[in-house]
Write a structure and sequence with these properties.
Keywords: Deoxyribonucleotide synthesis, Iron, Metal-binding, Oxidoreductase
Order of helices and strands: HHHHHHHHHHHHHH
Protein name: Ribonucleoside-diphosphate reductase subunit beta
CATH class: Mainly Alpha
GO biological process, one term: deoxyribonucleotide biosynthetic process
Number of helices: 14
Structural class: mainly alpha
GO cellular component, one term: ribonucleoside-diphosphate reductase complex
CATH superfamily: Ribonucleotide Reductase, subunit A
Distance between the termini: 48 Å
Number of domains: 1
Helix content: 55-70%
Strand content: under 5%
CATH architecture: Orthogonal Bundle
Subunit structure: Tetramer of two alpha and two beta subunits.
Oligomer: single chain
Number of strands: 0
Shape: globular
């Protein structure tokens, strides 16, 4: 397994508390200046991220309750488990993936965009819990989160990703963290996205499908932005280092795909959709490679038309510079009073 920095080398680079304080005292502290464009794309991505901001509370999930009751038991198990897997990935991306890139990113505007993206990952995780709260009992939710901890293929996926995120100490490991993030944003999520899109395209679980569409649009933006940062970072290396990193990226992709195919077969085989989902995974893995500036790697058959329509329709699009989906309703807010900040249990 490719690992950029050995633990021994990492320990040598760690500063003592006194050294860190000395560095702070000797530094000139700067502020982000949005009136100067640091590159030709970051401010556009900031604007689009802000324009796309949404909250799960503003999507009427309760409208799915009748549809949920009409699903078969196998369909309900699959639906809640794919969302549980997505919750784990969003948790790791918000808590580990985005911060791992921010730490070694010196440009303040880029840090701001990454920070906003990290916030959206947390909102995505919260949105799945909003679906669970609406559709499941407390006992079912507890069992579902226990399943996350006990499912070996899902846990292995998190371990593979975290091996990169937890070893960011230098430019090479920063690049690998960026590449891992692009794979997560543009590829790994999609085994979970397939079934909600598949059902929504048939008029089932429409509100929850709208949340997936909103998340898809965000992840598309994240994958493109981090992909641009990764391409720029790769150009900084020597020819030999670029080849070394490219080989590492493909090894990582193959390891992730091997695990993801097993995970997909475990989830979907009861409904006979596993081959379609794996084809969908390869389609999106190719998209992730394109985001990184590489050529497509997998041979792909035509993607399920219903699911593909969920990716490309104008009213529910996650394409770059799209607007909010057609099921999204901005909430109505009242002015806050002092009494609103009084809590009985604090």
């Amino acid at each position: 397994m490719f690992c950029i920095v050995l633990e021994e080398e990492m320990s040598k680079k760690k500063l003592t508390r006194e050294e860190r304080i000395q560095n702070i005292n000797n530094s000139i502290h700067k502020a982000v200046n949005w009136d100067t464009e640091d590159d030709d794309f970051t401010q556009a991505f900031w604007d689009q991220n802000v324009k796309q901001f949404w909250l799960p509370e503003e999507v009427p999930i309760s409208k799915d309750i009748p549809s949920w009751a009409e699903l078969t038991e196998s369909e309900r198990i699959l639906y809640k488990r794919v969302l549980a897997g997505l919750t784990l990935l969003d948790t790791k991306q918000g808590n580990d993936g985005i911060p791992s890139m921010m730490d070694l990113t010196e440009n303040f505007q880029r840090k701001a965009v990454l920070s906003f993206m990290g916030t959206m990952e947390e909102i995505h995780a919260k949105s799945y819990s909003s679906i669970f709260t609406t559709l499941l009992s407390k006992h079912e939710i507890d069992d579902l989160f226990l399943w996350i901890e006990e499912e070996p293929l899902l846990q292995n996926k998190a371990k593979i990703v975290l091996r990169q995120y937890k070893n960011v100490e230098d430019p090479k490991s920063l690049y690998m963290s960026m590449a891992t993030s692009v794979f997560l944003e543009s590829f790994l999520f999609y085994s979970g996205f397939f079934f909600p899109l598949y059902l929504a395209g048939q008029g089932k679980m429409i509100a929850s499908g709208e949340i997936i569409s909103l998340i898809l649009r965000d992840e598309s933006l994240h994958g493109k932005y981090i992909g641009l940062l990764a391409q720029e970072k790769l150009r900084e290396f020597s020819y030999d280092d670029r080849n070394e990193l490219k080989d590492a990226v493909y090894r990582l992709l193959k390891e992730l795909m091997e695990n993801e195919e097993k995970y997909t077969r475990m989830l979907y085989e009861g409904l006979g959709l596993e081959d379609q989902v794996i084809n969908f995974l390869r389609y999106n893995a190719n998209s992730a490679l394109v985001n990184l500036g590489f050529e497509e790697f997998y041979k792909v058959e035509p993607v399920n038309a219903i699911v593909l329509n969920g990716l490309s329709t104008e009213t529910k699009t996650h394409d770059f510079f799209s607007t909010k989906g057609n099921g999204y309703q901005k909430g109505i807010y009242e002015d806050l009073e002092d009494e609103d900040f009084k809590f009985d249990n604090i």
